[in-house]
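Morning!

As promised:
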Amino acid sequence: MTAAPPPVREPAWPLSRSAIGLWVTEGIIGSVFLGIAATLFAVFVPSDAPAPWPLLRWLVPLAVVGYAVVVIGIRPWIRFRVHRWEVTGEAVYTLTGWLTRTWTLVPISRIQTVDVTRGVLQQIFGLSTVAVMTASSQGTVQVWHLEADVAQRVADDLAHRAEQVRDQAT
Amino acid sequence: MTRPPAAGRRTSPRIVLVHTATFRQARQFVPALIPVLAATGLGGGTTTVIALAVGVTLLSLSTAALSWWRFTYADGPTSVVVTRGLLSRSVRTVPNDRIRGVEVEAPLLHRLFGLVRVRIDAAAGAVNGKDEELVVDGVPREEGDRLRTAVLTHRATDTPRADGEPETADFARFDNRWLLYAPLVGSYLAVPLAAVGALFRLAQELPESLRPQLDGPELSDVHVLVLAVVAALVLLTAGSVIGAAVVNWGFRLTRRGGSLIATRGLVTRRHTELEIDRIRGWALSEGLGMRRVGAARSTALVTGLGDAARRGQLLPLGPRAEGRALGARLVEEPGPLVTHPPAARRRRIVRALAAGLAVTTAGLIVGPLLGWWWVPAAGVALIVLGVPVGLGRYAALGHAAGPGSFSVRSGWLVREQAVLQRRAVVGWQVRQSPFQRRAGLATVVACVGAGKGGYAAIDMAAAEVARFTAAASGGWASDLAPRRRSAPGSFRNRPVARPSPGPGT
């Protein structure tokens, strides 16, 4: 069975390429922490421990290495290929995920607030996240990792248009 | 309706007595007092006990009086202001347009003194917790009703009110026979269990000398065992029925003007008001046991309602048909549900079997090592049980879109069907895992600013998604539909944003 066509349309615009760098950096940081934890595990588990421990002494470092390969070498690129976003005439539309994909569509008329956030790492790469909030706890759209100036323009544009077409918004 | 400008009003002094009796304010001193008392050493004797009782009562009385003295409230034309605090004063102002509902309740003691407690539910944004409420505790009944109407009239500018009370119509009434469904509902069954638990704790805390000397009954005797089990079952059943009766006694739903008013409760009478304008839909939930006898409960899905599960109840317990009919009077059902494709059934069964398979595999590896043969046995049992669970979960799945509303259903332990207006949708989320992709399925979540916040049509055919979303919400959802490939472009070079005309419903 080959991959079926996606259930809905793909948003048109890709993210900034710097997002790959950011994801790789995040992966490296996460792997380093896990590596430290695994090292501690290997150091503190005595070598003559009973039944399942010797096996774990091998499995844990292997798992960490596998995780590092995936999050540094594979996931950022898949994510970049998957992630897309678009602001249409009536809605904000995003596609996120790498294995499980999530499409989110929120009409501009139901937007309650628009936030632009810049994390520490994002600042290094000159990126920002636009978060669009609605009345629903599950209806939040986050457009990750746009170039800072684009993000600001998108946010202003959305806030402005939401003001104009807002109905009850709930 | 003219009133003196927002001068602080006081609650009734009688509330001091109520609070003295319930130790409402003094309760917080108890943890501090215990070590103090322990340190001074408690001699036995009647005098100490009496002194203690008098002291505690005085403490309770004084704290209750103090907090009554320091508490004022004012309902102005634009906002409600509550001032309180013993040492640090706090003034809370809630604009009237932020008030989502007013609840008047009368606990037993309050009723003896002719008082009520008014809870004003204020939309405090995303902050959740108890602070969303303003509580005006202990006003006479008439004042409570006045406050409720005053606050709601100021807020609801759109509700046309001629003179006096608008017409009142009965919407639904609870039939006491429906209390017999209670033993099949998990939450009501929990009531007697909790009571038994509390009793045991109390018994443990009793001094040794006061505890009756009971030998454990001889459980080896089959008759005694059977008797005990039967007695426990009877108690559990009776307890759940009584629990349900206490909460739901005399449940009545009336429609007055633009709101639905629910009253209920045996000991504590509650009076909850829902604005019909804010109702976006309803949900019918049927637990595993309730489904056997065709019982259900139905809840209104209201935007911006704190504690919606309790306040939004349309029918706390009753026949399924009744719950449906009640909901349909608010939001019409879209028609029969569309079942999901066979791939969804496979997926449900596989998922239901996964736990059993994992346990069995683990058991087959670990079992021989440690001699735990019950592990794989339990795994096999889980697998066998998994089949009906998976089938049941599949049978629950369904979705439908009609002219004014749409509906989704899922769940096995508690099967929940939500019926929502088209305008309720504030966003769509489509999820597809790699397995769903291969099976041609997708999960669609309608994001809604009411109830749980999102209602999912699990594992619907991927090809159906665009049609369903377009049919179940406004025209904006057609953005999801696959369309001719437009020029990729990016936000930088896209044409100037044009404001879309009119509300996007």
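The two ends of chain B are 37 Å apart (CA to CA).

Hope this helps with the figure draft.
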